[in-house]
UniProtKB/TrEMBL annotation:
Keyword Transmembrane: yes
Residues that span the membrane, as ranges: 60-78, 90-110, 116-143, 164-184, 190-213
Originating species: Streptomyces roseus
Keyword Signal belongs to the record: no
UniProt entry keywords in alphabetical sequence: Membrane, Transmembrane, Transmembrane helix
Protein name per the record: Membrane protein
Amino acid sequence: MTSLDKPITPDPAGEPSADQKAVTQAALFDAFGGVRGTVETMLPGLLFVMIYTVNKDVKMSAIAAGAVAVLLVIVRLLRKDTVKHAFSGVFGVGVGVAFALFTGTAKGFYLPGMIYGAGLGVAFTLSALVGFPLLGVILGPVFKENLSWRTRNPGRKKAYTKASLAWGLIFLAKYAILFPLYWWGDATQLGWVLIALKLPPMVLAVYFTWVFLAKAPPPIDVIAEWEAEEAAEKARKAGTP
């Protein structure tokens, strides 16, 4: 995988360079967890649906899903891997397990995640429309540009706006399918449709993000700027009699 610390060399013709595309791809891969993070996100929900489909036991299904989510975090801790994606996953599963056990229904397991996902769709869409794209806030630290894109890099702000709008519309379309199933479909049907729609919308949203950002101007590395300013200040003080 390409290092995120690798400097990006702009193409003189204005086209996105190979370095820019590779660094953008690496950053997105890191930000959204990659293949392993995706599998860890899907596994507890898949286990819940499979067990519930076989025996219709909400309690057993919920406990199994929660146990697997915790186990995935423990494995990462033992291997000293990053746990940010695993912890976010176990939190989401934990809330779903609590709802399922409290309501006694399988649909209770799915509801918190559906509300959260629909809320994200609204947030991404509104943030793009008001000119403060949420994806820029999320990915700015990954690219070491923080919020510099807002005032110093209009090309990247435009790209983040387009990408945030894409995320918002994709999420809203997904939950426009799922909520009618939640209200009128059965729990088993809802679970399998949820699993089927887990990955494709995410892949599509990440793809659009890569397309827009790969064509945008390179990020301004504000971390490097701060470090350079500190070094210059130290050198100035060292040279002061």
